[in-house]
Amino acid sequence: MTVRKDSTPTPGPAHQYKRSWKNLLINKKYQLRFTLFMVGLSSALMIGLGLWVMKVANETTQVSATSVRGTPCDRIPEIEAPEVRPAVPMKLDDNGEPPPTPMTAPPEPAEGSAASGSASGAPSGDEPPRRATIQMDESSMTIMPETKRGIVLPPDFGVKVVNHWQCELQISGKLDRLERGRTRILLVLIATGLFLVFGLAIYGIKMTHKVAGPLFKVGLYLGKMRNGRFDKVYNLRKGDQLVDFYEHFKHAHAGVVEMQKADIARIKAVVASAEAAGLGEHASTNELREMITRKEKSLE
Question: Which of 22, 79, 244, 258 matches a 20 to 30 Å C-alpha distance to 86?
Fold first, then answer.
């Protein structure tokens, strides 16, 4: 409060309070209870909605995947097995010569002839028996390998193979897109739920702060009034709630201040009358002066 040269008091500049993140939780019990209830209710609704959406998304993905897997693709033509010609049996190269006549051993002599031989001067039994001689002529053998016919491919074999694998890759790509779409829905639901929870938590604290702030200020002013101080009641901050209630409190506070000022004026009149009557130093007059001082301080 400033004072002019003519000692007429003038109101000073209005005091403005600014919000700060440090004092958002003025009434923790009220603000946290309200915010947690709002966040819990929204979380339960989001979880239920998310489960239903994912159930529908899974069913839709399965139906679409089944439809995609049922898409027919061109078959790859079968390759004919090569024809195997039977092997030519092996033969001996005789070069047009007749086969050699095998040699046979001479027949063994009979017992009677042996006796006559010994009598006629033939070799005795001490001589070794004669053995047959076998002569092997040189021959050659030719083996003919099996012959295979080359693999026969259809004329459009390459085109059909390319079309088949192109169709398979398209089906695989469609299945991947369906799976990515299902995953995208899940991630969007999770992100939306987290954003909603944190957003509601911050919004709930700020909104309850706009209600708890005016109540807190009213409580401070009432505490000062109980202690005999009648400070100036400042306006609410922009965006605060309970504006009508606060205006009623301001009018009531202003009425109490006017009553205090009226009491001061009446007490001063009594003191002036006492001084005029020569009772300025009386104990009661001094008490009245002290009362005036206390009341004036309470209005500062």
Answer: 79
Write down the pTM of the prediction.
0.52
Q: Please say whether the beta carbons of 197 and 39 come within 8 A.
A: yes
Q: How far is CA 120 from CA 66, 123, 261, in A?
A: 111, 9, 190
Looking at the structure, tell me whether residues 204 and 232 fall in a common domain. Answer: no
pLDDT in tens, 194-204: 999 999 999 88
Tens-digit pLDDT profile for residues 59-86: 999 999 998 888 888 887 777 666 655 5
- The first and second tokens of residue 23, run together, are 């004092």
Supply the range of the domain harboring residue 271: 228-300
Q: Is 297 inside a domain boundary? A: yes
How far is residue 125's CA from residue 112's CA, in Å, rounded to a whole number? 14
Residue whose tokens read 């995953």: 183
- Token match 């001082």: residue? 293
> 289 with 187, same domain?
no
Section 256-270 average pLDDT? 86
Angle 162-167-171 from CA coordinates, rounded to 5°: 150
* Cα-to-chain-centroid distance, residue 234: 50
| Mean of the per-residue pLDDT values of the chain | 76
* 267 in a structural domain: yes
| 3-state helix vs strand vs coil in the chain, percent to 5 | 60, 5, 35
DSSP state of 136: P
247 and 185 in one domain?
Answer: no
